[in-house]
Design a protein that fits this description.
The chain is of the alpha+beta class. The protein is about 50% helix and about 15% strand.
Length: about 200
């Protein structure tokens, strides 16, 4: 992956000192560090120049999967930085609005991420930073399906069928992927919908 093109340096802002101050704050604030690491989604905090101030473990794993640029430049993957640049460029167009830029990144059939970027003002850094949230759509879907399986008392096979259905697979694609017949898929889906309806009736 080629190196990213970063925005020109902002005059009179000692970026290196800002980074040092931020990192010192992170290291001394166990609460803040615990909060950042406790997020299910990946969290990146960047300067406007693309300099990485902090990445939680989830974000680091996602960046690894996307393909990182050279650590020497301390930059994030190009797909993520493009979303960040959109927010930076929108500041001139909408100076008084608190915008969040959202985008999808796909890497093959099984790797799909949602990226959200917004401004973050930190006391120890003069210029606003970029707060990047990275959501692994597959893992999010799996958590939803696990919760559904518990709520509706689905069997393991029904859970597999429901996961693929929620991932927008057709009945035929589900049958092919699970090596079962189309009629078996229809039977499982009929049972799933019946269990969901029964749960909804109990809730009323």
């Amino acid at each position: 992956m080629k190196a990213l093109t970063t925005a020109p340096a902002i005059p009179n802002i000692p970026a290196k000192q800002s980074k040092i101050a931020f990192l010192q704050n992170i290291e001394t604030s166990y609460f803040l560090k615990g909060v950042l690491e406790g997020f299910i989604d990946g969290i990146l905090i960047l300067t406007e120049q693309g300099e990485l101030l902090h990445a939680n473990q989830t974000a680091t794993k996602i960046c690894d999967r996307l393909g990182k640029v050279s650590d020497k430049h301390n930059l994030v993957p190009e797909e993520i930085w493009r979303v960040c640049q959109s927010l930076i460029e929108s500041r001139d167009l909408f100076p008084d609005r608190k915008l969040t830029i959202e985008s999808e990144i796909s890497k093959g059939d099984s790797v799909n991420f949602r990226v959200r970027v917004r401004w973050l003002k930190l006391e120890q850094i003069e210029r606003p930073c970029l707060l990047v949230t990275l959501e692994d759509r597959q893992q999010s879907l799996q958590r939803i399906v696990i919760n559904d399986a518990y709520l509706y008392n689905l069997t393991p096979r029904e859970g597999e069928v429901w996961l693929l259905y929620r991932a927008n697979y057709s009945y035929k694609e589900i049958a092919d992927k699970l090596y079962i017949t189309l009629n078996t898929v229809k039977k499982h889906m009929k049972n799933i919908h019946a269990k969901r309806k029964a749960f909804s009736d109990l809730e009323m």
